[in-house]
Amino acid sequence: MSIREDLIERCARKRDQKVGPLSKEAFAELTLAVRENPAGFADEAAEQALLVLADALDSHRAAARDDDLLDDDAFAAERSKRLRRLVEACEAACALDAGCLDALLVHALAEDLEPDELTLRLVGLAAEFDSAEEASADLWDDPLNRPRLRLRAAIARTCIDAARFSLARNGARRVVDATLAAGDPLGARHTLMLACARLEDEDGLNRAEALFSGRESAWSHLSRILLLYKLGRMSAARRALRGFDSLCAGGAYALLHPVYVDLYLPERPEVPACGFEEAVMAVREAEPIIADVPEFIGWCQGHEWLAASARSFAERNDLDW
Amino acid sequence: MAHDARREDYLRMSLRFALSLDEGSPDHAARAFASFGRRFAQSRDSLPQSDADRAFHLVSLATELLDYRLPFVGEELVEPLRARARGMLDEALALDPFCHDAARMRTGLDVASHEERLRLLMERADLVRSSCEKDRDALCELLEEPRRPLAASIAMRPWWRWLAETAECALICGRNHAALAAAEELMDADPSDLSDVRFTLAYTLVKLEDAPGLERLVWRYPTLGDTRADDAWILLSQAALAYKRLELDAARHLLGRLLEAYRGCGAALAQQVEIGDGFFARIRVPAYSEDELVVALSEGVVLLQEGVERTGKGVFGAWVAKTALELDPAAPKGPATKGAQRGASGQ
Predict the structure, then answer these.
(1) Helix (H), strand (E) at residue B186
(2) A116 reaches B (C-beta below 8 A)
(3) Are A221 and A201 in contact (CB under 8 A)?
(4) Which chain B positions have a beta carbon within 8 Å of A116's beta carbon?
(5) pTM
(6) Which residue, B246, B170, B164, is CA-closest to B211?
(7) Residues of B with CB below 8 A from A204's CB?
């Protein structure tokens, strides 16, 4: 769910309140019109700020398309230039609406801080913006709640990088609970599962999996392997590894040959479940947990079928091996 | 506290000596005991001893080499020294196939993989335990009541060291529940905690972010053999947990307490040098010395180097280094501390 979609929904709802209530069909038509010309409907500062941010994020993504052609130094320079432009756009958005939490979040992320500094920045934002809300599973319904939920999901992810796994687990669980009706659109369950694996919290991982049964992902598979490995249940861990390899396209390759993943601005890009991109993201997010089990990758490499699967994926897709 | 192979060698021999005297007259016993110390030092072979005692003596010699000399020798001496120690341990095992310390240290020398070592340690744990218990029961049957507690303790120590290494190995492997189980089993088996396994337990509880568990451990401290409550391990654990919980003021305060307990050791905190673990047991160092802090920090790598951090120090490690220099601005930033000279030439 992107910030642009939020903006469209907010503008449409506002217009509906002013002229409506509209019929379902008319509302759908209105939404289409907003999508065509958001500037025409963003008539208040809050929406105008969001529009600045949404445009900046789109051009940021578009500019990243040719990165593969650059060498390392050129890429680093290009990337930092791009992030600077994004920071400027966030500042412009905040000049329109000082309370544009999405812009503040993207601003903090785009500064590319160490996880520790980033955590403090984001927690500061949460202290400023979080409101006491009643326990509810459908907070996602209202687009006005989404920036806060997005911020909390980002904090939970950052806590994994900063090795604060209880905070990550609790924070991610809160987001999952608050957005359950919408099916956890922010993917906080992924963070929750990784944190449970690291804390060897089998009950926690079981509960999270049960809540989303039938929606396995690269994160859920990887979390299960790590948990079983850490608990010393090696034959079960091996079976889970086999499952990961057969159910996640390119999972073996992603695990044995980690691929660079850039910042999430401010959410994970939407990719197909259990596809290669997802495996790459899951491995990146699990990095602090994998590094904490120093012989885990060696154990993975020791399975010939896994290495063979990774190699053949690399050959099929013309990747380095 | 901590295990001392030389002292244990002496205690074993004195128990054996006492055993040989129990049959003679009290007068003779008193005279003979007066000469024990001198004979132990000068003509050890003239004293009564079993093959197990001889094997343990070799273990104590190998410990001197591996744990107290190896860390200080130059690169060219590392292999010859390890080879000599290996020879001693092999001889110990030839004398006494149940010399569990020798077997464990031999594995430490030859098996680089912590996972593999952990597997071996866990696989043979029950066997080692029952073997030690058998020795204990046999010995206690022969000895008079007042000597039994010491004899029982000495008989069980190889098992305690076995568990202590299991806990440490599991912690390094990232198998925190296994580390917890081994450490708790050892605390139950030896409530005075001669092995100082509470240090490993404290780190494990931080890894599991088990705040109530760490609090319970702190409460338990006064009941243990060594009652100081401000050793480097517990303070670093409390600081790490506070840090993980984003209680940064508390973490800073705890780091300040650590620096008060280990005066002038800001540089060690900033540098976080990694040294090898002891082969026999955690190496003996004076309480509150810089060396003790270095040992605690080196074992604390599992806490310090966690997370994604660009300098490679780890998230908590980078914070500790920065905060230590703020709290102790006089700390030299160069690498020339005693601790740093130990190098990483150990295990």
Answers:
(1) helix B176-189
(2) yes
(3) no
(4) 307, 309, 315, 318-319
(5) 0.93
(6) B246
(7) none
**What are the pLDDT digits (tens) for B33-90?**
777 888 888 878 888 788 999 999 999 999 999 999 998 899 999 999 999 999 999 9
**Nearest chain B alpha carbon to A294:** B173
Report d(CA B316, CA B303) in Å as an integer. 7
pLDDT category at B22 given cuts 50, 70, 90 is low
Q: Which residue of A has its CA nearest to B309?
A: A114
CA-nearest residue of chain B to A289? B307
Dist. CA A57–CA A53, nearest whole Å:
6
Taking the Cβ of residue A307 and every Cβ of chain B, the question of whether any pair is shorter than 8 Å is answered with no
Measured between beta carbons, the chain A residues lying within 8 angstroms of B306 are 163, 288, 291-292
B307 CB-side CA count, 13 A: 31
What is the ipTM score, two decimals?
0.93
CB-CB under 8 Å, A299 with B308: no
Residue in A166, A291, A295 nearest the CB of B113: A295
DSSP codes of every residue in A27-91: HHHHHHHHHH-HHHH--SHHHHHHHHHHHHHHHHHHHGGGGGGS-HHHHHHHHHHHHHHHHHHHH
User: Are A141 and A182 spatial neighbours (Cβ–Cβ below 8 Å)?
Assistant: yes
Q: What was the pLDDT predicted at B337?
A: 45
Distance from C-alpha of B112 to C-alpha of B135, rounded to nearest angstrom: 31
Q: Where are the domains of chain B?
A: 228-347
Domain ranges of chain A: 1-66+73-101, 216-321
Task: Render pLDDT for A93-122 as a digit per residue (tens, 0 to 9).
Answer: 999 999 999 999 999 999 999 999 999 999
Cβ of residue A203 closer than 8 Å to a chain B Cβ: no
- Identify which of A206, A201, A116 has the alpha carbon closest to the alpha carbon of residue A164: A116
Q: Which two tokens stand for residue B129?
A: 């335990």
Token couple for B225: 């053999």
Coil vs helix vs strand at B308: coil
Q: How far apart are CA B276 and CA B67, in angstroms?
A: 9
Query: Which residue reads 């980078």 in tokens?
Result: B318
Closest CA to A237 of A218, A253, A223: A223
Closest CA in chain A for residue B306: A163
Tell me how many degrees the CA angle A95-A101-A102 measures, rounded to the nearest 5: 95
How far is residue B69's CA from residue B279's CA, in Å, rounded to a whole number? 12
| Nearest-CB residue to A232 (from B172, B178, B246) | B178
Q: Within 10 Å of residue A56's Cβ, how many Cβ atoms?
A: 23
Whole-number Å distance between alpha carbons of B222 and A122: 41
Angle at B273 between CA B269 and CA B277, to 5 degrees: 120
Would you say residue B256 has pLDDT above 80? yes
Q: Do B246 and A167 touch (CB under 8 A)?
A: yes
